[in-house]
Amino acid sequence: MPKVFATAKQGLIAGLIGFATVAVLMFIVDLAAGRPPFYSAAVLGSALFGAAPNPTNVTVAAATVLGYSVVHLVVFLAFGLIAAALASLADRGRHLWFIGLFFFIFVCFHMFGAVQALAAPMRAALPEAMLWGAGIAAAVMIALYLLRAHPRIRAAQAW
């Protein structure tokens, strides 16, 4: 398999891992907080699509949850592809690993920043710790997967 296809495959897997990590964590937090399943996705989808101007009007609707989920999946697939390309680049030389580190930090903050920018009225409905935690957990899971897929990067670093 040519290197570009292997990298694309790794990127898609990494994106799916990040997406699934966030989705599962949001689901667990919703249930633990006594909210309906998929409430967080409904809040973010309502903010993204303008379905509810404030958090008290959010209802968990399949269209809103699925619409948000599709957008979130596409974003994570793009992040995964970029991360895999950067890991492939870092695999070529020890001096390039910092690019991957930058991306890791970027992913950690993307979810929180997107919510801050797009869903200001919805912030009261979602705990900030969940947003930070989900973003960081997704970044860690993506990094772990790519480090496993690129043992030379792991070996080159004195972690």
Structural summary, described in words:
The structure is a single chain. The chain is mostly helical. The protein has one domain (3-153). Helices cover 75% and strands 0% of the residues. It is built from 6 helices and no strands. It has helices spanning 3-32, 39-49, 62-90, 97-118, 128-149, 151-156. α1 (3-32) packs across α3 (62-90), α3 (62-90) packs antiparallel against α4 (97-118) and α4 (97-118) runs antiparallel to α5 (128-149). It is elongated and about 50 Å long.
Feature tags:
6 helices, mainly alpha, elongated, 159 residues
What proportion strand? Answer: under 5%
Question: Radius of gyration, rounded?
Answer: 17 Å
Assign an overall shape.
Answer: elongated
Structural class computed from helices and strand pairing: mainly alpha
How many structural domains in the coordinates? 1
Please report the total strand number as a whole number: 0
Which bin fits the share of residues in helices?
over 70%
Query: Largest sheet, described in full?
Result: none
Could you tell me the mean pLDDT? 83
Write the layout of secondary structure elements.
Layout: H1 3-32, H2 39-49, H3 62-90, H4 97-118, H5 128-149, H6 151-156
Helix pairs in contact: 1-3, 1-5, 2-3, 3-4, 3-5, 4-5
